Amino acid sequence: MKLYFAPGACSLAVHIVLRELQLPFTLVRVNNQTKLTEQGEDFLQINPKGYVAALMLDDGQVLTEGVVILQYLADLSADARLAPVNGSWLRVRLQEWLNFITAELHAACSPLFSEAMPAVAKQLLRDRLGHRLSYLSHTLQQQDYLMEQGYSVADAYLFTVLGWLPRLGLDLDRWPALVAFMARLAERPAVAAALAAEA
Predict the structure, then answer these.
(1) The CATH number of the domain where 27 resides is what?
(2) Alpha-carbon span 123 to 144, nearest angstrom
(3) The Cα angle at residue 13 between residues 9 and 19, in degrees rounded to 5
(4) What positions does the domain GST N-terminal occupy (predicted)?
């Protein structure tokens, strides 16, 4: 498999999960501005959507959309229990968390990276994110991970998105449970290895 990634992008979650599962893969760095890979390939030929993550399977098929890739990988190595069994009620709960992260956190963060966005609009987004982070904090005060059953692909995704917030003007110190969550995940060998490889 080949993981097309950009350092610090949402592809980090997929990178972490590949390492957690100890699956064989190759990293291919993508320049988000030029849309070229480090080998000079046109990334738009690989993923016409133009963004990472993209996972090229050994048969040449390409999967896109992080939450889909995360679940696909978890199902490849079901014994690792990074996702509940497909079709189960717990899997629906996992999908609920993944959709919350992608729709309420990730999507709200994206415009904050834009220099063209007015400061007033950015503050409105930060305020909205603050409410979502308070909800997350309440959950993570009760348990170590998003799922009561333990660490899952949703935690890798949440770690990735929360990692952006200090650069976007949101100080996680307001939510000690989120700070503790980030520290807990940073101690996982797969997380440390993925961060080091992307540095």
Answers:
(1) 3.40.30.10
(2) 30
(3) 125
(4) 1-81
Is 162:180 a contact under the CB 8 Å cutoff? no
Same domain for 183 and 104: yes
Q: What is the pLDDT, as a whole number, of residue 111?
A: 86
In tens, the pLDDT along 7-45 reads 989 999 999 999 999 999 999 999 999 999 999 999 999
Tokens 């904090």 -> residue: 137
| Tally of residues, the chain | 199
CATH code, 136 = 1.20.1050.10
Dist. CA 17–CA 151, nearest whole Å: 11
- Model confidence at 6, in pLDDT bands (50, 70, 90)? very high
Same domain, 111 and 143: yes
Q: Show the tokens assigned to 198.
A: 């992307």
Question: With a threshold of 0.90, does the pTM exceed it?
Answer: yes
